[in-house]
Amino acid sequence: MIDNQILASAERQAQLEAAKAAFFNSGGQITRAGGCTLQPLPPTRSVKIDPDTILKRRRKSPTPAERQTLRRLAEAL
């Protein structure tokens, strides 16, 4: 199986070389294009949580049981 792969790749290489030679013989030229620019990775997220941010977060709404307890406390006053 490996011998078949080697033979197939050698044949493919010969075909590519023949196509390349035909291209250059017909007056073809290679032009170099500009490379791509590398974009830096975005900064990693911090593990630290800012205390001010925690205070600004929306609090959970009270459950019905908590509301009933608050009503009873308010009526008791």
Automatic annotation (TrEMBL):
Domain of life: Bacteria
Protein name: Uncharacterized protein
